[in-house]
Amino acid sequence: MTIISPRTASVFAPFLVSFLNLHFVESTGQRYKNGDHVDLWVNKVGPYANPQEAYEYYTLPFCEPTPNLDNAKKEIKFNEEKSDHSVGEHFGGHTLRHSGHSIIFASKTVTDKCSTKALTADEAKTFTNAASDQWFYQWYLDELPVWGMVGEMLPPQVGSEQKGEPEYDENGKMISPEKKHTHDEFKRHWNQPTNDVPYVYTDRTLSIYYNQDKIVKIDLNSSPQSLAKVAEGEQLTFTLTVEWLETKESAHGRFDRYLDHDFFKHQIHWFSIFNSFMMVLFLTGLVALIMLRTLKKDFARYSIASVNEDFDDAETGETQGLTGESGPAPQLVEDSGWKLVHGDVFRAPPHLSLLASLLGTGWQLIILTLGLILFAIAGPAHGGDVYEERGTMMGAALVLYALSSTVAGYISGNHYKIYSAPKHVSKKSQQLPSSSSGSWQSTMLFTSIFFPTVIVVIHSILNTVSLYYGTINTVPFHVVVQLLALWVFISVPLSIVGTLFGRNGKNLMGGPDSGTIARRANDFPCRVNSIPRPIPSSLDVPWYGKPLFLIPFSGLLPFGSIFIELYYVLTSLWNYKFYHVYGFMFAVYIILFIVTGMTSIISTYFCLNAGENYHWHWTSFGSGASTAFYVFLYAVYYFIFKTDMHGYLQVCYYFGYTMLICVSLGTLCGTLGYYAANKFVRTIFANVKID
């Protein structure tokens, strides 16, 4: 039985794409004819150091452009919002509005000019803050982005500086030209007063390169000679010169100029992948060596104990040895280590419903992440690379999450069923663990609401902060309604269907199909005792057998295998770089699979053998999930030492998204660790003779 059929996906996927207003553009851009109007969209403006502190472009008191009458072939609606924003664009903080400029394809060079009224005190302060905090703006033309700086903070004698006259610091020492800007930035960073005054760029040139009917690239240049001083009562005149330049460059790969190949394909990146791969080989070999040799000794010891029990001669005290000769009875070997907990190792874990729902959500995130990576790798197959279109990855994530809800329901329902059978089936049947808490209905409910609740709580806080500050990252109400409808009418029903199938379907945990209670009795390699065995006191257990030490130590190796890639991902998220090396990410994802599974197996073995603790379920889950703790610590380090972010709004967004990433990664890695440990536990107990 399949979890979700291709037919089901083919029915829901087009509906979701239409419902979420997802659209994929041709990577080479739109085709134009001479005389066609080309829209120039303004997106956002905000401080360069704070990616999420973005405002609508005309938050700054720019003047409304006066379109060139010769080019005004159609009515221009100044500051009109683009009508087809997708849900992914709204989440990405993209709110495109028409610039008001009239641009005609392959026309002559034209200049649009406009002037502001005399700046009020508030308007002058707004421009001053923009120049002081290094605000930048973003435009889009034919789906190609372009950026420019609003202004600069310069000394009042900027004219004399251009003539080569020296400047001096507060100690009377001359500041060299190459150190001047660094010196001023240092003082501003530590809130020290400077003598700089705000200037804004007023003359800008937009160069558009085209090849036949395609736009190939665009450049925006701001003239330093046009820097105008900002002060109350000043009137600023802004000009935009649009020039068309013909080129022989192909439109294919026109987005490549935005990709930082030197950064992402640096030798260190390749070395990190090689290093992680060698770690996998080393760890796999180490686990195989230690586990196979250790387990071989364990199996030999337990086999001798089993043979000795078969040769009990009460009358003569002698028995037939392994060599066939008579002799004294071998000394009995008592059960010890992991075999000692054979009667409890398959007992239902505490909080079964919660664990089952976490495992279901974990598998959903595993499939979601894998699907997104493959979707990104196959970018050209569906119209273009994912970084070329705003909100594509977010939209794809929503679609995949909704469709994979069946997986979450199926896994959680199936896992709950295995551990929730009645204690006694029949006289000949094995004793089965009973559910420690909850019911299959609560499991289904937890699975449906756990991850959405985390997302809603975090985004509600961030949306409230964004609404207070008035940024464009505020998610509109109609988008919230769309997402609620997506969850209620698509995700929840699929999760319920998956849970029902999981309760009556094939056992994914090992063993035969479990369609009946009688069959469920054979799901475990050994029976479960009716009375739980006491767990040794922590004082009697060595440190390497305590979950308190095993769980945090287990997350070090998985984190070590991904932290270099994590640096590139964080840089893409917070430093305006387009992540495009999804082949690297796929390799790291596979490495994370293997390393997490191996470390979880080791921690589970020590928990059972050294600690004689049969509560391995949560230990194995925590061993994998602990990777997220180190990711969070690294994110804190990255925030402090690798960024210049500041302000309450940006801090909220950074750590809000970091918490969401860590919860998702912890659930994903915890699920990987649990299923590796489960396979290991079933294997070792299935290969030892137990009465």
Q: Can you describe this structure?
A:
There is one protein chain. The protein has 691 residues and is an alpha+beta fold. The protein has helices at 6-19, 87-91, 121-132, 158-162, 177-189, 261-264, 267-310, 352-377, 392-403, 405-419, 440-469, 477-504, 517-520, 547-554, 556-574, 582-609, 616-625, 627-641, 648-686, and strands spanning 37-38, 40-47, 97-98, 103-104, 110-115, 135-141, 144-149, 151-154, 167-168, 174-175, 197-200, 203-211, 214-222, 228-229, 237-246, 318-320, 326-328. The strands form 6 sheets. A 4-stranded antiparallel β-sheet has the order 3-2-6-7. α8 (352-377) packs across α19. The longest helix is centred in the middle third of the chain and has 44 residues, at 267-310. It is elongated and about 95 Å long. The two termini are 35 Å apart. The model is unreliable at 1-5, 159-166, 168-191, 313-333, 422-437 and 511-522 (pLDDT under 50).
